[in-house]
Amino acid sequence: MKKIRIIATGGTIAGTADSAADTSDYQAGSLGIEEIIQSVPGISSCAELSAEQLCNIDSRDMTENLLLRLSKRVIALIGQEGTDGIVITHGTDTMEETAFFLHLTVPAGKPVVLTGSMRPATALSADGPMNLLNAVRTAASPDAAGRGVLITMNDSIEGAVDATKKNTTSLDAFCSPNRGSLGMIRDGVPVFFAERSSGIPDDRQLMRTETECEGKKRKRDPGMFSLEGIKKLPTVYILYGNTCADGAMVRAAVRAGAEGIVYAGTGNGSVHQEDERELLRAAESGIPVVVSSRTGSGPVTAHVRGGSQSGIISSGFLNPQKARILLQLCLTETKNPEIIGRVFSRY
To answer: Which CATH class is domain 3-192?
Structure first.
């Protein structure tokens, strides 16, 4: 029987409300992981389980320190012979960001699966128990190994690169708008739609060898950013494009000490001329600027007037929140927009 470690971080799956009919007015992160596990019939027959409580928060309050702690803890656990896979219970609000951060910092190999719920544990027809059961089933599946970090919610299996929360309240809250779901839970069995690619998946090959970034040399596992010695991530702000923009928010981000900026542009990464002027100034001053889109799907292939000569970087298929994660990790290695652009071009 596979040995699966559950790391709990809180979220709605650990939430409680005064009424069983209440699915919105509840306190996230109220129950401990042992109590949650005990509420899932048959889970112990799927794997040999052990659990730990990293934190117990609403995921809207996820911090940089917790992200770093979680990643380092997962790396330590998957390096142990007694761990075959990891399940992380997490709030859905920022689950996609944590999943992508782990995908970029944890070596591919043993399954790492995030799950949560849209209804608190006290609700009628709470979805948390089934989601947790399916996450354990997925983490214990040999077919899940080597696919990078996964999200399992509402019988679907999504990859960390493309998965996003698409709905505020529906149980069917997650999707992968560009690549599609990686698989599903069918009659209690994880089924993947495509064969695993040989070696490291393409989307994890960035900075595959010792980094070329400005002569720095860091030992790393293939396809991951190293967090060795990292105690604080670079400051990156997301700015939202809109009509009647005046550049004020870009100037404010620069004054606040932004080390990078992600701009959620309209349409295909379009930028209002007033914001564009300030973004170009920021880029000229040495602040890497990535343009994404607020639309929710599709690649960004255009951004500012001046094209690739502007120094502005396209996010590819990454949404603004994931572009921010990738830019933060790139900035731990370099501020060179050409190198950062090559990393983003893989997405």
So the answer is: alpha beta
